[in-house]
What we know:
heterodimer, A: 515 residues, alpha+beta, six-stranded mixed beta sheet, 16 helices, 21% strand, B: 304 residues, mainly alpha, 14 helices
Amino acid sequence: MGFRRLLAVAMGLSLLATACGDSGSDEAGSGGGRFVYANPFPISDLDPSSAFSSENVVLQNVYETLTTYNPPGASDLVSGALAESWEANDDATVWTFNLREGVTFHDGAALTAQAVVDSLQRTIDLDLGAAFILLPIDSMEAVDDLTVQFNLAYPAPMDLVMSSNYGVYIMSPEAVSQDDAWFNEGNEAGTGPYTISSFTPGESTVLTQYEDYWGGWTDGQIAEAEIQLVEDPVLAEQLVRGGDADFTYNLPFDSYDALSSEDGLTVVRAQSMTNLFGLLNHERLSPEVREAMVLSFPYDDVVESLYGGESSRAQGIVPQAVWGSSDSLTLPETDLARAAELISAAGAEGTEVTYSFDAGTTEQQQIGEVWKTNLADIGIDLVLDPLTFDARWEIAQADPANAQDVFTMFWFPTFVTPYDFLFSLFHSEDAPFFNLGYYSNPEFDTLIDDGDAVSGLSPDEAADLFTKAQQILIEDNAAVFMLDVPNTEVISSDVEGHVANPAYANVVRFYNLTR
Amino acid sequence: MGGPVASSSARRGLLPGLATPTPGSAVWYYRRSPLGLLAAGVIAVFVVAAVAAPWLTPFADQGRGDAELPSRLMAPNAVNWLGTDDLGRDILARLLFGARTALIVAVGVVAAAVIIGVLVGAIAGYFGGWVDEILMRITDTFLAFPPLLLAVVVAAALGPSLRNTIVAIAVSWWPWYARQVRAQVLSLRERPFVQALQVVGVPTRQIITRHVIPNAMTPVWVQSTADLGAAVLTAAGLSFVGLGPRPPTADWGVMIADGRQFVLSGQWWIAGFAGLAITLVALAFNLMGDVIRDVTDPKTRGNL
């Protein structure tokens, strides 16, 4: 029993020590040529055809796509990556991509048009993750060794599609025939500037220079990058402060001000295409309760107080920085009196509503607590349920009738189009994947599918359809559209070359860095 | 527990040249065990804070969890004596309501562990033989796990809530009481008064509950007092790692976990005061356990 008392005292001291601030270890900062990325979210799936969560930081450095979406300020939306040039017919139904010469995969094979066709076919065949972005493809062919042609069933902006975060990575013929397990052992065969030299699930991924990268190498570039899983934001902050990590994000928003005055660290505040919202469970919540929840959300408080005015209220589900977003939607305002009337008319006082959020993500918890205060006033008890993302995703996919009532989630575009937000989160699904409010409305489905079908030819017409669809989501109270979250990151000041690109939220392209 | 904590008599006792204090008065306790009295004081404050939390602060709603965004992250000041947290809630109010959570957990855990432990220990010790074997092997199974680890596993399996915290810690603690009581009962059952009761034909249940258990309880009282503090600390540990009550229930461990991230940017008061509260309460119960042990132990009683 003495042991327990000793333990008690030891725990007391350690809690007190934590409370008084722990400066962390003081190891020497990582030397030149090495870069440590403290990653707040896990690498759950390294299969480039099916990954669809937070794996893009690895995939974007190991694999390449035909095109990449440019950071804000560029004259064109996309630039070539594996493709040097491309053209489409007038209908935007036939697309031809000309591949770069002299590109090799990490296993030594040369990049060919057939490898491109096979890689994309693998995504289509698996039909997981981001496979939906390839739906327009009717057929693909390798015209010659370095020319790929896509024949589409309906017009689509394939240059944008091919810049996606997911589903369009090109891999060697050898890798195409491998299964999910092979990739998740840390194997790969992309064309990117880095190879995976070690992968420990739940801990870290180490990337090293691929000597024969087509872009070539110069002195001062990053030779080795380690992507470390650091789910605890406080630990992540300590690591960057102590020089043990060079980059992180998803810190409590309040800490960036203090970090910006810290020697050796730079706070990057960039345009954002990431938003935060709460999907409302249509199997469990009545329309009245959903409307009351939407009306009781503290929109202005969240933007003004929690984010110090640096974010903006979400205008529907499509972030303002994404083309086709709308600033003319009729949005609900916080109105507790009206919400209380609805609850009382529905006899729903005392209803318990669960709020599922990412444990450790400060703002999601703060938002939940502020919202809870409002909901308590109208007779709804919001129960905050913090879990890891993987755990809550599993619960949400299992059985809608017994799942959470509110699924809180960040979303950044798969590729930059309103359709991604609308389709992934609200299109009818046979089995729940990311439509975790279980929303289903045939009228809405038709509108967005039509919008997608014309987006290749006339983006303006598509934007109109998407706007109509967004207004339906708002009228149906399909979700609580909270805010476009600021895209804020911390990086070591001695590293040059990082450009925050909202289309690849929080991805660092290690190849572009020098130190 | 300490006697009446009458401040006026305590003050009188500090004056030199006064007559020997009356046994049982605060001064009498103070002379014999100043730390014990101090501990009793802290415990009294803790219990009063827990019971009377809503009446002790003008910010009771914030203590329960209501956000007050305009006053976010304010340093200690005249209105919010201990500052405010990231949602603008008064830290003192949160501490008071957190005392409630801590008291419920402490009493809940110790009561559950004592009841289960004493029953199992008494039955095993009194009957001996295969009953003893079975019960003690079960007890050993639980003892085979480090208590904190077992509590973490149970809490993780049950999900975060106040009730589950109590269950998780009690599950890992009862075997210690069972062992202790069994040892006492083993010697008690050989005593003439127990054998006399058996001969007279008093029902076994009555012998155990009325005669054996009451006589085996002394070490249990000592231990359970100290364990109240350990329970506060363990519960704070579970909350700290996210296995305690759900937000926004006020909880000292959660306050440290949530406040931790603000320490780096200079807002030390959220985690700092919560850490202080935990340390004081845990220490007070430990000291109180020592005092009770000294009082009840014939070897040290005279030296008090």
